[in-house]
Amino acid sequence: MQEILTAVSLGSVYLLFALGMSLTWGTIDILNFSHGSIFMFSTFTAYLLLESVSLPLVAVLLIGVVVGAVMSLVIQKLAFEQILKRARDKRSAEMQILIGGIGVATIPLAIAQHHTKSNPFGLQESTFDVTVWRHGDLFITNVAVYTIILALVLWAATTLWLRLTRQGLAMRAIGVDAETASLMGIDRQRLALLTMAASGAFAGLAGVMFTYYLGAITPESGDTLLVKAFAIIILGGVGSMWGVAFGAFALALAEVYVQGHTSGSWTDAVSFGLIFLVLLVRPAGLFGRKEVRRT
Amino acid sequence: MSLFYDSHLVLIQSTLTGLLMALSIQVPLRMGVFSFAGAGCYGFGAYAAALLVIHQEMGALEAIALAALMTAGIGLVLGLVLARLNGLYLAMATVAFDLIIGVIAVNGGEFTGSSTGLYGVITDFSMSQMYVITVAVVALIAFSELGRTGRRVEAVRDDPQLAASVGVDVRRYRIVAFVVSGALGGIAGGMNVMVRSIIQPLDIGFTLIVLALTMIIVGGARSWVGAVIGAVIFTWLPDLLSAVGQWQELIYGILVAIAAVLLPRGIHGVLVDGYRWGKRRRRDGRAEELASDDGDEPELVLADPAPTPPDQHGLSRPTTDARGRA
After folding, report:
1. Is the pLDDT of residue B60 over 50?
2. What parts of the sequence cross the membrane (chain A) (predicted)?
3. Structural domain contains residue A5
4. Structurally, how many domains does chain A consist of?
5. Which of chain B's residues have a Cβ under 8 Å away from the Cβ of A114?
6. CB contact under 8 A, B260 and A275
7. Which of B64, B10, B58, B9 is nearest to B183 (CA)?
């Protein structure tokens, strides 16, 4: 029972993180490999600010969201848009974006590593205190509860936005056939900026919540989560909102199980093994259809 | 000169192993196969060679050869198993493979030395042997870029369907890419463990993939020359930048980002473009003097069997159309 509780709260962090990646990959076809460093750097900025002022949880979250969104917009403008402008075809654009993302990610990473000497940093200076709630044998922290609520609300909001609004329809249209969507008068560049901003905001939010959840993160934490998020999206199927939620909780459950039954150093192998296995057996993911249709 | 050589021996060794490592990812990339399995084979090869030396008391050359044979076999299996995957999916499946090798190395107990790795791989491996292996391998790869083979490889990359329709066995080329990549990774890993006498799980993680990719992207992905440029730059740059000061990591990051965004074909691509531009200008000047056209160079036509007009599948055009309408 405690294992399930832990898995649900861990899965919620994964969901928050993977949601942003899934959104940009499923709609505007950008697999953003700097997502992990946006996650890390927005938390890092909050950590730096907290050195001079003590702030409540909401303010710290807001910093994470704003920094994440701004970083994401800058990267879209300076890197991905430039790559798309120059790309010869879709396939080479995909690879250039992957590589560009890895390249761009080194900059915030280098800054944070330089400042922290690669040591862990946390958000203990804020006025928010992590408390543990107990009920018999079971326990859960208030951060974990907030994370679960935030993750589920944002996931539902994103899903509904994609399903019900005109912009959501436009996004799905881009995901299905970008060129026809453009011919129908959809402004791809503006929508791409909007999507990237939302994705970055999710990354910042996930960064702050994850850091409270764990106590501290290192500059390299973003890279680890990046691979996990990839496993999550692959498991569920690219572009599927149900898939990303399923993937996040399934990965967390598998990891908690492996953690509880082995020495612990095998935990990382869960996500890597999942990626390999799913791609081998069902490349479209569990919720993906053979013909790509994104929701 | 000799003093410089001795004091920079480690860097020279790193350049050579880095070059082979970069080539192990570049060779499949040149055929349009986005596989990072070479990095995993590097790790596997390093551990295999180290174990052969430690437990079987094998000589350096035999150990490297055997390790390379094993990683070529792994490449073959991966090539067959992952035949259905393409693009990003293939890239990530092979990244997952590389990371699994790392996790196995950490969890291998006494056999792989867990997180401390394997120590004391002492052999009679000499620098001249290292040069001979590297030059021989690079020469073979350079050879594959010439003539019929080279043109076929380019056809497989630029338009697999077209290549298949003119009788090129695309599937076989893809498998060959995996096997060569595996062998190259194995040789690089084996050589590295021979000159360092240590191998640790930390040496074969995600950073290894990023480093090899960085070398190729900045150097150029189309030719072995690009891998050489990249290997030299990214082995020697950190050493030079350490003189610049404490911000070397940042400068390094900015350089990589700029290259990734602005130079899709790397420094080698820029050099080739510059060379062609100069040649064309000279030819045009001569043509004007003679007031007659001396025709296209047959070499250039043959080297590009699947010419794709840059704007035909361009991504930017529809966007401007949409903007025009909006």
Report:
1. yes
2. 6-23, 56-75, 95-112, 143-162, 191-214, 226-254, 266-285
3. yes
4. 1
5. 246-247, 249-250
6. no
7. B64
**Shortest distance, CA A290 to any CA of chain B (angstroms):** 13
Answer whether B106 sits within 8 Å of A96, measured CB to CB: no
Nearest 10 degrees: Cα torsion A41, A43, A48, A54? 160
The two structure tokens encoding residue B155: 């056809």
Q: Tell me whether residues B322 and A183 touch, CB distance under 8 A.
A: yes
**pTM of the predicted structure, to 2 decimals:** 0.83
Tell me if B212 sits within 8 A of B21, measured CB to CB.
yes
Question: Strand, coil or helix: what is A132?
Answer: strand
Rounded to whole angstroms, how far apart are CA atoms B157 and B151? Answer: 10
Count residue pairs from A and B with Cβ separation < 8 A: 156
What mean pLDDT is predicted for residues A200-226? 91
pLDDT: is A89 or A235 the higher one? A235
Contact list in A for residue B249 (CB cut-off 8 A) is: 106, 110, 113-114
Nearby residues of A163 by Cβ (< 8 Å), 6 or more positions away:
A295
A243 domain residue, yes or no: no
- The residue segments making up the domain with residue A27 are 1-217
Residue B213 and residue B71: Cα distance in Å, rounded?
20
- Chain segment A99-158, per-residue pLDDT in tens: 889 889 989 998 998 888 888 998 887 777 778 888 777 888 888 899 999 999 999 999
A positions 229-248 inside 8 Å of B (CB): 230-231, 234
The number of C-alpha atoms within 13 Å of A200 and in the hemisphere containing its C-beta is 23
**Option in B256, B313, B325 nearest A106 (CB):** B256
The rounded distance, in Å, linking the Cα atoms of B216 and B98 is 18
B304 φψ region: left (φ > 0), alpha (ψ -120 to 50), beta (else): beta
